[in-house]
Amino acid sequence: MIRIVIAEDQQMLRGALTALLKFEADIEVVAEVSDGQAAWEVIQSEQPDVCLLDIEMPFMNGLELAEKIRTDALLQSCKVVIVTTFARPGFLQKAIDVKVDGYLLKDEPIDYLIESIRKVIKGERVISMDLAATLFMKEENPLSLRETEVLRLAKSGLTTSEICNELFLTKGTVRNYLSSAIQKLESETRQQAINTAVQKGWI
């Protein structure tokens, strides 16, 4: 029996996936949750065979969650499949970097998802056919590590002063990183830079 945890913030889709997978004799959905933190807790307690993770979820996104699973010694046998609407090269590259077992688009047929679950259990890696070409369209991230950190913290709602405290930097230094990031991303404001970095999968 393949034990699965589904983490998806859209209730209708999560319910539909659960209902459809329950028709399979060799698949059991042991939990379905709506946010990343709840998913992490249930994954630790249930230790499923496969985790189906959305990317955009409250508290912790699917890629962050995949990275935590990959670095937990007790979860090394757990297979991670990202199921998302995002076909962005940046997200796909991040997923590959954290060694997910599958990266599927939500508009794939349910039969393809079920087949992919069985494939990853056998040790195969599965990527939606439509995504294969995006690997060759990878756009280089122009942001430095510090610029990325500063933008990520700004995205989470922190003020300049709070970012200073978080990274142990002066206000002037933080402003310089923000200004540099805005310039590199050809944006006019901090929010535009954040939106661009998110869209390209860089933060």
From TrEMBL:
Keywords: DNA-binding, Phosphoprotein, Transcription, Transcription regulation, Two-component regulatory system. Pfam families: GerE, Response_reg. It is found in: Cytoplasm. One of its GO terms (biological process) is regulation of DNA-templated transcription. The modification 4-aspartylphosphate is found at residue 54. Transmembrane segments: none annotated. One of its GO terms (molecular function) is DNA binding. One of its GO terms (cellular component) is cytoplasm. It comes from the Bacteria. Residues 136-201 form the HTH luxR-type domain. Its main location: cytoplasm. The keyword Transcription regulation applies. Residues 3-121 form the Response regulatory domain. InterPro entries: CheY-like_superfamily, Sig_transdc_resp-reg_C-effctor, Sig_transdc_resp-reg_receiver, Tscrpt_reg_LuxR_C, WalR-like, WH-like_DNA-bd_sf. PROSITE patterns: HTH_LUXR_2, RESPONSE_REGULATORY. This is Transcriptional regulator.
